[in-house]
Amino acid sequence: MAGGVVQQSGRGGRRRSYRPLAEINVTPLVDVMLVLLIVFMVTAPLLTTGIHVDLPKSAAGPLSQADDKPLEITVDGKHQIYLQETPVTMDQLVPRLNAIANANHEAKIYIRGDRANSWGDMMEILGAVGGAGYTKVGLVSNPLDGQVQRKK
To answer: Which residues 6+ apart lie within 8 Å of 144 measured at CB?
Structure first.
């Protein structure tokens, strides 16, 4: 806080008394807040996904987002499977998925796959997840260039 002192002169200019200045200088506070805003705006998109995959493009509209965060299964271009950000084998996928979801078959599951993967690889994972009883499974893709997103 910036508190200052104002000098007043009495009669004749000889005697001086000081009274405190009760104004707050908010300029440094605004500067700090703007810097923090820029830092958070730059870092927030970097925290959304940990495994990079080249998603295929699709004309499908976006899924509705709810408060609960979906589980993500990712298959990268080297056919490595990740549950959230942990690498797993195909045999470990369903047991670990059940452990994370607490056998809640209503949990949302998003499958992200690199465009270099074959359709058969993706269907094998989709079949394993669906065969385990999960019903809310979605495939993630990027929108087509120039396509307008529809709102629900």
So the answer is: 57, 58, 59
